[in-house]
Give the backbone structure.
Amino acid sequence: MSATRISDWLEGLGYADDPTSLHRAASEIPNAHPYGPEISALLHPDGAIRARAVYDVEGVPSVVFLGDRDAPISEQELDLVRQKIWNQNLANVVLEISGDTARAHPARKLNNSSQTLHLAEARSDGPFSAREVSSANLARRLPEWFDVKARVDSKLLENLSAAVREIGQNGYATIAAADSTRRLAELLMGQVLFISYLEHRQIVGATYRDHHSLKQFHSLVATQDTDGLRRLIDCLRQDFNGDFLSDDRHDPWSSLEPAGFDTLDRFLSRTDLQTGQGDFWNYDFSFIPVELLSGLYESFLSPEEQASSGAYYTPRHLAMLAIDQAFATSPNPLSETIFDGACGSGILLTTAYRRLIALQEARDKKRLSFKARRDLLVSRIFGADINPMACRVSAFSLYLSLLDGLDPSDILEAQAQENVKLPTLAGTNLLSGEQGDFFAPDHGFAGKRFSLLVSNPPWGEADGQSVTSADRWASTVDAPIARRQIAGAFSIRALDFLDDTGRICLILPIILFVGPSNAQFVSHLFRLLKPNRLINFGDLQNLLFPSAEHTCHVFTGQKRSNGINSRIPLEETFDYCVPKADMSLAYGRLALQSADRHQLQTISVVQNPQLLVTLMWVITQTCR
């Protein structure tokens, strides 16, 4: 198919009118584009998709244009391409161009859903036009194409949770303790994802298996070959190192019963473990984003467990926005030392690390080597969490980020010639248990100072007579922390980990800034930290954190030189943003419009924090 005909369609549907959002070659993608690697994978002329163009809406790839250069795309090929686009978890629409005719398909598997278009009828404000897509009118017209429950993140996390539950209950019959069986099931599924990723990326492919006399992972599971699995895992441990395949790497397999192998076989065979249906697309870990896999740990938590621990999974689009905000005021993100004191499964650290890789490659104008990525990780990314399993998943996510985008031959060459392996992060860059307790006086990073702290701290409030480490720390400082809110204490404790000009980006429960009992806390916080931006997501209640009682604020600020005694200039202001709920989340994005932004005088809010509540109410009511 000629480039001219593709151009005719892009012009007819109005996509060519927005050249900054239309991408036709990987070489033309801006270096700082947040989804540059994903768009490049779609456009690569020798890749699995071979898209002719990709259109993004506010940076998020939303429409993929297909059209084989030599012959029409067969139904089987189209099915495989859509499957990979679905696994990428970004674009919702596929436009297949064939001469003067085009077919529009949802990226998800949805029977009898395709629609036919004719070039003579194409309009810039018509069906599947750039205007219909960017305005979210398409999502309103065809909501089933945008069903969040049918996205790969929902399917994968749902199936992972079911697998952990089922294996924990039936896969370890000889072990009585429920907490032990659950831990083994979590370790097992973590290894499944890690090995699947290595195989799908061909890092562990046929050549690697032949060289080491190994069998393919799924075949070992299907035949319940524990000896073969042990050899595979030991070989990966030897070649890749890393904390996820540590000394307990064989524990999940040594006592796994046939029922557990059966569950695992069904999981790897694309069976929906909750319904028993086997008709949804295969997971393709060469396309599934690493940030999605970093939601592994939180996917194991039930809503009840989330509420009791105050741990809520940070959605990918919120993580992207938070890192955007954190880096926006940085003079040089590549010089930052980044710390998350409640890292959970590491989605914020993973997002930040991937952004650093992209910025370094843009600066150097070449792809970073395995060793360079390793050095960047070890020198710039740090995290801690009281939960050891959470830190292991953080390591897992960071390892996948290090490997992502590298040619398998480059990885194997680095291992063979330079003896470069995945770094050990546990105990150095990632701390857990008592060492990782953010409020412990002997925290493993006590005395170390970071330039940037990003975190989504626990949102819980201590109940009854129990005394938490946050309570003990709060009793040693003079700070107004209402209702024993852990996130409030976290915000102030964070200053102990910042260098003299350190900055902060926190995802905090909305009640912390607009709750009637927190006025003193807001004044105190703004005297310690110069606010740069406060984003109020109150209008997105139940959309960002469906199982939480409240939604959140994203707060960015910089440490004041004289602490609580700093004088706040009258001219000092900060951005107060109140985004409105719209269809943006259907496209997997969070949008900040100019109308959402308001300038507030810092000293006025310090003297009267109720201004945040009043302005939020006025903005929300005005926009309804």
About this structure: The first helix runs from residue 3 to 12. The longest strand covers residues 498-509. The CA atoms of residues 193 and 272 lie 16 Å apart. The radius of gyration is 25 Å.
